[in-house]
Structures are given as structure tokens and as C-alpha cells.
């Protein structure tokens, strides 16, 4: 994005030229078209964690002196161009998300207030949800990391920018995820490493939070749904039949004894 190395001793990169940025924009559009043609239901633009669009947004990395650098308005210019171009080719009935590092958490970096302004601009450009993460540029990241440690960012952006948000970051328990949504802190919850630990987490969460719901089948692969539903119906019939046929044991005054055994009262 600029010609400044990330840190002393790092290789010096080439700054992106106008033609480079135009080609990048065409690549974003081509990728969005491929995703739409492949049948993806949701598309997320990654503008966090030090990737290209985050590098434009953050004052820590964006030291350009052209129309894409300087003020926050200028630093948003290229990311907004990407959003506009992608939204133009992404179907209107499919959600478009943007992942933001709401704070750089380094001195002089992005703040929550900056990200609220960014989120407002993205909402006006047709973004449906802001996926609220943090970090990725700068050093000295000092925020304590624990369960749900980034939920406050989703809550702030949702309240101030009036756009739906997604919370992410050490969401590991179904009840924790449910509390985030039902409390109004965020509209959605994203899973990352927890999905690696437990690929069936959404199904387990549905069983935990709504054990009688048939929506659990929608979480399965399409080719698996009818088979699992059939299995559940068969099990239900089996248990119902077993309960109906359970013999009723009446008390008996007879005592069975082995031959030669003595019964004493």
C-alpha cells in the first residue's frame, strides 16, 4: 500500500500505483462474481487484521500523500470504492458483510469512534452487517483477551452506526452466544477456532438451546437432512412403542426358591 517496511529490517515494498489499485478493484469484482455464480449466500469483505483495506483505513499504515491518505475521509476512499464495486455485482437479496478491526489498540491507531464513522459510510454504500474484530496493525496490543472480549465493539458500532453487527472472539458456549444476541449486543455471532475444535457446534447449540426445534436439520448438509430426520422419526416411534408395551409387574406372594433351599419367615 505504501513503500514503507513494516518494521526495521523488513523488506521495503512497492507502493501501489493508480493502475495497481484499478487492477485490485477489478479483482475484487471478479471474485464477487465468482462467489455469486458458485451459489454462496453471504459475502464478507475482509477489511481487518492488517490486510489491504485495513491498511488503507488505519493511520498507522496509511501514510500516503495522495487522495487515499491523510484524513479518515481520504483513508476510507479506496475501501468504499471496493464496497461500491462489489455491491454492484453482488445480488441485492444476498447479505454483504465487512469485517473491521474496530480498534488497532495501538497508540495513534483506529478508535471506536473512527470505526463508527466507517461503518456509517459502509451502511450507506449497501453493507448489511459489520463483523467487529480488532488488532492486526501496530504493536503493544494490550487488551486483555478472554471470552467475548470483542463483544463491546459490536455493541458500540450497532448502537452508534445503526447497522447490524456480528460479534466474534472467544465465543465458545451456546448460552454465551445466545446471551450476546438476546441482550442486543450484536445481531449475529461468528465462530472461528471453536468451529475447528467442534465442527458440529451449530448443531449442538441448537440441541442445547432449542432441543425440540426441527430447525436443527437446516444446519446439516443438504444431502444429510432427510436421512437424519428419518432416523429421528424411527427412534421416536421406537421409544413410544417401548413405553406402551412396558409390562406392569404386580406384587406376588409367591417366593421362588432353588431346589433344597429353605425359606424362613
Report the β-strand fraction as a percent range. Answer: 5-15%
Tell me the span between the first and last alpha carbons.
97 Å
| CATH architectural type of the largest domain | Alpha-Beta Barrel
| Radius of gyration (Å) | 28 Å
The CATH C-level name of the largest domain is Alpha Beta
Strand segment count: 5
Structural class assignment: alpha/beta
Task: Tell me the number of helical segments per DSSP (H or I, 4 or more residues long).
Answer: 10
CATH topology of the largest domain: TIM Barrel
Helix and strand sequence: HEHHHEHEHEHEHHH
CATH superfamily of the largest domain: Aldolase class I
> What gross morphology would you assign?
elongated
Instruction: Kindly report the spatial arrangement of strands forming the biggest sheet.
Output: 1-2-3-4-5
Percent helix, as a range, is: 40-55%
Give start-end ranges of low-pLDDT stretches: 254-258
- Name the average pLDDT: 90
Number of domains: 2
